[in-house]
Amino acid sequence: MTRQTPPRSSRPARKTNLDPNQGADAAKVPHPQTNPEKEALAWAHSARFLTTAAQLNQLPASELPEVAFVGRSNAGKSTAINTIAQQRQLAFASKTPGRTQHINLFNLGPKAAPNQIWADLPGYGYAAVERNAKLRWQEVMASYLELRRNLTGVVHMVDSRHGFTELDRQLLEFVSPRVRNGEVKLLVLLTKADKLNRKEAAESMRQAQEVLADIVTDESDVGLVLFSALKKVGVGDVAQALQEWAATDEFAQAEAAAQLAALPPEPEE
Fold it and tell me: What is this structure's pTM?
């Protein structure tokens, strides 16, 4: 399994490297008795539904780091989210791909003080979806990726058998300015890797590296992972990467207190 983000101890903050021979360490030095992958998977398992929104203005305001999951309707996005969270039905997969047209948010971390939000964005590019609906959701996703203030990272699912399609490249264009300046991190999952042999997997990685090279800068943080929900390939790597993007305990507790203080007072009896 190759994860293409260099160790934090050997690079400045947000430095990007697509060297396939390097892996990423956890943000905090683990205790000798701990297992970083198991801890990250346990953290990912804490994911629970927060809210759903049909429009951007319906999304709740938050200072917590938000991670958006994006991908074509048939790239295995919902399956990947459920696999990373080790839950069967966390992310909803419509029986008709492309029909789910809401942004679903999930909290992660302690219930009293969540430290990250996952945003499951609608799949795109499915042929059976009416053209106007496609254009509307293209605009919604473009606006979300360009403007969502607390967006910290994007997990982009790309079918490893087909690589970056034209629509995948368009989505990259939406977020690339924020990736290039280091404002938003990018992690690309080459999904359905179990369907490739070793040679095909290597070629899929090579082609993806060529595409991502166009948005790599000294400030960017870009990762690339071969991923298989069926064989559980890359799941631990992804969980660790996402946990690294979570808020600190102190920040999460302060945000929870601020959210509580912002609630309207309960009416007196």
Answer: 0.84
